[in-house]
């Protein structure tokens, strides 16, 4: 077998003629958001200029909005943008300059989350302060701006600058500036939610995006809320009057759509956070970094925003952490079907909540513990709490429920009496992400659900180590069943919708932890959260860590703090500030009584448990939604089944049982970050943020034309030897000529060399001896090295393996 890199092509990418770079406009950018995701009709814009310039939007002169600010740049807040594309141009006296297209979206949304849920009830008066009646169907209302101060009692109360009170506290910002503790709070509407923003201000100085005399630190503390609801109504945001970050000079901001109890859709949560951050930037200037904060379902949002919409959050301060949302939906499925099996006459039964007789094979909590995988101290409580939170009267898996949905019973779907009604399940709430299936009893469609328990062997780990009998194991798995998309218990196991399953992975709804590895996180679990008997078991911190390790090779961005009774935990906000400001990363620790600081086993005094899916043999990453199957085999079990028991297992698992040695069905890293669902379910990548183009009007080139030239010779590895592990190298050269002020040589390859229908398992690697130039060059040879690894067991087909590699020589300064 011969391996070669053949038919090497060179693609030349050239910029504009040199006269544009000689203009008086050296740079142009939108500061308040990506230029293609702006909302509300305004944008904060900055340019580096020399000499007089004019600024226009689609020919409308907006030069008066701009001035040279304390930053030394020309900055201005552009208003009056129309919905859609707006071309902003900055032009010097000679007619050269730069332009950028700003795509504006309605302040009522959506921007990238796809079609909004309907019906939806507006109530701007839900906030404190109330905003009055909505002015349109998008729930917009007039913005309110207040001045508050922190008094001697630690309360935030109204501040009257005409009559300054005597009991204003002082505060010292993280820049060391001591000022009166006076706060501006802004309450408004965006994306059909209600946002609030608060910031430390000097009311005697101008409060503008470029103000240099205001005490805020250009840092943002963004809060998220927990629980899970599919509310179809406008609700109140959480409080932004948080003394510690405000006193340090941080803006504190949030939206009602960042409370999962209101909006259990992380894509809409990301959109709301982006729009609120844009409002912050347009009022107070660009944000240096953003710290996310919140516990429970707020951690799902923080993890998913960091993973899928990088740049929205720069540091995470979490507590009661979960990996993501759909891991918990999967957990709800397991808990509900197991509760239904254990208490067949009352699926919601558990000690303290109902008196139904339990399954005779599992008469006690101790008997059920091996299946739960939970803390033996209170084994039923783990799933009991989850079922009570997402049970028959809630909306996680039950589309007919209207609790936490915000609709009247008459508005809710019913297969017989109201087939066109609104369904309240999580799949229906996220139909813009996953899509719907049209059925006769739901002509508007049923949301596609990505949960699955086909092939799952509940209690497998306990069976193998002798804590569960063969009789218990067989009976449990034969009878546990599943839940259908209508929330009804079924004898058959639950099967994930194939499209929803693929989308869950491709769009990052199941968090692979590949994108968040550069975002620092301090995960703080208090003593009350560490007993694994409630709704927030501690193992989730460690399963998320396992994902980080699997995807990135380490968990350098994640710090876990545990605390036992009497332990004193450092201040999480201060620790994250130091990490982001100075790079001083805290360390994992368990804080115990008497000032003792131990490891994550709390010096051997604490154990983390699990859940039913882990107790069924799931990998510790807990991110296999639908497992691949393998045939049943008696040899796989440490127990002996009777022939009758084996026949029952064969009938229970006709297609096989979970093979957790392989990745799950459709399991893959996200296809891209920054997806938009405006075009439909599944999403598409927005791509890089738009950048400004340079232009010159009425000019001609000079005596030296803009020149980029590139030639690349083919390369060959020679002969690949089957059955022998080796790493082959081949070399060639790329010859570069450039008249540009800078140039970049990049390479994109075929991924894997191919021989007809056969491809090598390992990817081709390409290394360039030089990739950048800061000055012109002519006829310069650059060494190119190709590396191909062949494994001892890699199947090789007779013939030639080859591939086409594209080399690109480009410039931004031709």
Quick overview:
This is DUF6351 domain-containing protein. The protein folds into four domains: 2-14 and 705-810, Sandwich (Immunoglobulin-like), CATH 2.60.40; 25-105, Sandwich (Immunoglobulin-like), CATH 2.60.40.10; 124-291, no CATH class; 326-507 and 635-658, no CATH class.
Question: Which helices and strands appear, and what pairs or packs with what?
Answer:
Blueprint: E1 2-5, E2 9-13, E3 25-30, E4 38-39, E5 43-49, E6 53-57, E7 60-61, E8 66-68, E9 74-78, E10 84-92, E11 97-105, E12 144-150, E13 156-158, E14 170-172, E15 178-180, E16 182-190, E17 193-200, E18 219-223, H1 243-247, E19 251-255, H2 266-284, E20 289-295, H3 297-308, E21 315-319, H4 326-342, H5 365-372, H6 379-389, H7 426-429, H8 431-434, E22 436-439, E23 442-447, H9 460-464, H10 470-479, E24 482-483, E25 489-490, H11 498-506, E26 521-525, H12 539-552, E27 558-563, H13 572-582, E28 589-591, E29 597-598, H14 612-615, E30 629-630, H15 643-652, E31 657-658, E32 675-676, E33 684-685, E34 693-695, E35 708-712, E36 715-719, E37 726-738, E38 743-748, E39 754-755, E40 758-759, E41 765-768, E42 772-773, E43 777-790, E44 800-803, E45 806-810
Helix pairs in contact: 2-3, 4-6, 5-6, 10-15
Organism: Solirubrobacter pauli
InterPro entries: DUF6351
Protein name: DUF6351 domain-containing protein
